[in-house]
Amino acid sequence: MDATLEETLVSYEELADLEQEFDDVETEIIRQQYALTKPLYAKRAELVSKIPNFWRLVLEQAPMDIDEYIQPSDSAVLMSSLKSLSVRRLELDADEKKGDPRSVAIRFEFDENEHFEDAVLEKTFWWRYSKDGFAGLVSEPVEIRWKKGKDLTDGLLGLVKAVYDEQAAKPKQAAKDKKSNKVELTAKQKALKEKMENTGMGGVSFFAWFGYIGEYVTAEESKAALAEEREERRKRKAGEEVAKKKDEDEEMEDDEDDEDDDDDDLEIFPTGDQLAMAFADDLWPAALKYFIQAQEEDLSEIDQDMDDWEDDEDDEDDEEEGAGRPQKKRA
Amino acid sequence: MDATLEETLVSYEELADLEQEFDDVETEIIRQQYALTKPLYAKRAELVSKIPNFWRLVLEQAPMDIDEYIQPSDSAVLMSSLKSLSVRRLELDADEKKGDPRSVAIRFEFDENEHFEDAVLEKTFWWRYSKDGFAGLVSEPVEIRWKKGKDLTDGLLGLVKAVYDEQAAKPKQAAKDKKSNKVELTAKQKALKEKMENTGMGGVSFFAWFGYIGEYVTAEESKAALAEEREERRKRKAGEEVAKKKDEDEEMEDDEDDEDDDDDDLEIFPTGDQLAMAFADDLWPAALKYFIQAQEEDLSEIDQDMDDWEDDEDDEDDEEEGAGRPQKKRA
């Protein structure tokens, strides 16, 4: 069944603008929720600090959209040395009123382990807008100080960092490179590309996530792009003429997932933004629920059977259960 | 790795009470969100009324946790005769302050079709608490006036309704029957059980969802159970002694999915509450996004290839994309 907008009396802009309005409300809601739950998270932090392995047990119960990225070798490190995990909305902490509630910093603390020197790994994701219509989470590669021969990403993460620094040195150019594949890859980019081609993306380590970039958009560019977009919206609302930068098709493509962007051929963790959201919107708020789940699994044979049965019968539902619906089943 | 609460200084009640507090905030947030988005939904309804097949196209893009329940024969009916779909928070419409924001009514409007007489099918889910610790969405079977030989549930839905009316006639007894399998099944229950055993649950029609019950809990029982639970919480908070109705293990089991309840052997759609939430928390708020997705799929070969690639490479993420994250990618 096919019904493109051309056949209708509604323009793509009308729909996109309304979607934006929904989006703005959604963002305000996250802002309020963060303020309302702050004391509860503090209380939780205090409680769980008394529970050995709290975060390891939570991570063991992680929903599919997190679990699928944790390879056995990653799991070995996490289960043996993860000390704590935390998520903060950094822009709200900086400016409760003006900060974007969707920007998050995800922090892992580790005990001494055989793979890397770092006691803390923190990955920061900023919600950014770009003039080409992109809006989403962008980040910078986080280096991990691997112990000799223990790099779980087999050098991928290091290469990404090297390429990023190279590109960041000339952001404007980098931005252009993205959209047109005309330009030659640099030596570093070539090396990364080859490395990626020789690594099955399926088998890539969870720790490669720390190399996620998304798009090269600075805070300034983002601010300008957002202002421009808001202004166009205002004009459309006021019925004024808005000069189209490009045709709708492109605009719509830009709305799509990172996976669709040209530059993904150099993105070692294309779904890194989605994984960040799974941590921030699901594992973090529902951690108590996952922990209690872990307890239940120990409790009785019957429970165990049930869980097994569920795993067979309706995996999807189990995941959905976990997926950001903390309001469910809490008596 | 095993770490039960016994080893720690934290009691199960402390965690459960805190989880409840998170839950209360979550519920308030839904209440605020409903108020804030009401005008936007009105605007959306007006816009989409001008778009032919809007809801059919949205449903075509439905995330896995809805799509998996729609059999080809269901899809044929929906795609040919679904006129509109809507979700309302009925308790908020009745009482914005006191109503439970988690109760939802999901309404489908149909054109004339070959399977049933009904122009409207509406399924209502109430958020209820029971003394045994259950909290979740309960519902009543909705009858469908099937045309001769066109019952997509092959009689299942009718049997469920018959059993429900029988049980509802003696709610107290029914409630007891639930928890103890001592009592004999009635003739109708036997018939239903047989019918279910002869129907692979996998192949059950989407329309069997209209038979979802969950638990037999009246509004009065729910009110009483909630009041009792709140009082116990208050006491625990005040450090007073609380008489345990049962040991923690049971309590924890009660926290689990419907799938774990004794009475599921007579529930024709055990995950009916989750499907309701998928409609209310995902398809409904993100409908514009799904519609635009549908447009994009028509747009260009490139897009099409991309989508295919995604389907192969990271299904999970595609679903997560859809799963209640309307705040994502909206520039």
From TrEMBL, chains A, B:
GO terms for biological process: nucleosome assembly. Residues 248-267, 299-321 have a biased composition (Acidic residues). One of its GO terms (cellular component) is nucleus. Residues 231-247 have a biased composition (Basic and acidic residues). InterPro entries: NAP-like_sf (IPR037231), NAP_family (IPR002164). Residues 231-272, 299-331 are annotated as: Disordered. Belongs to the nucleosome assembly protein (NAP) family. This is Uncharacterized protein.
